[in-house]
Input
Amino acid sequence: MKTTKSLVAKVAPQSVKKIVKKFAQHRLKNTADFRESASEIDSISDESYLRMAYKVIFEREIDSDGLTNWLNALDMGLSRTALVRMLVDSVEFQLRPLSSKDLSYVLDAKLHYARFKLIRTVLPEAKVILDLGGASTGDDRGALLSFGYPYLPEKIYIADLPPDERMLNASELTQHIRYKNCDIEYVYTSMSDLSSFEEGSFDLIWSGQSIEHVTQEDAEKVFAQAYKLLKPGGKLALDTPNRSATQIQCPEGYIHPEHKIEYFYSDLCQTLESHNFKVVEAKGIIDLSNTIDNKLDMKHFCEEAINSEVLNDKPEKSYCFYICCMRSHEL
Output
């Protein structure tokens, strides 16, 4: 996903086609002689489909030349799916200006995708995992598996606050589930209090966008405990927003109301080193080098973020960063 165009091209065609269908269905249902069922929407004429597609995708009426050319193409065998893809890939669609709200939504979607890719391609394989703040609303397996972690651990402990204390409340207090051959156990506690776990228990301790939700003092407690909880050769990994980027987005505060701190990459590395960890791998999540280096405004921030590589080797110059570390004496 190197450009906005490729992002839209991979995601939009089917969804836009569905929107066109819904638009058509809504229009037909509001006529007195509506007879078509949802499954018959595809039977509407090519001209009606084209007019609706232009209204949804370009927010304008189709011009006469466009109507003639596309009708000829459809008559020659072009599928409607291919038609929608070509409209979305068109220069007109790509050059449509986005509002600041649009940019924010696209940035959020790209960050979500980037974290999916991070967990699927970078996070190391482990048999026994402690996931800090890893509850996932709507998926009892937890955030790690719902984000597509490609390995099936033997055991995952999810340490998180009780449902009624989280920002996104869950309706039930899950204690234990089994997914395929993986045991998943919930421990309701602050991530800064890991006293219920035995030392030397974990191959991987993972903090996915959670370390910023506790104070720096509590984060140091997390790192001190993590050092003891890891098995020989175990790894501590985390991803978190980069203050070098978020201070451009929110110079007077943090990007989320529940964030207690947002770290500069070098500062967090130093903190980990003070707890006898050594970074063995680091990645940037959404490159913002130009914006950070040149102190550009939010318009450039969003444009660069939307068009940049989702994972890179510039953790200090990206929107978020990933760190994987091991205990120094084991290296």
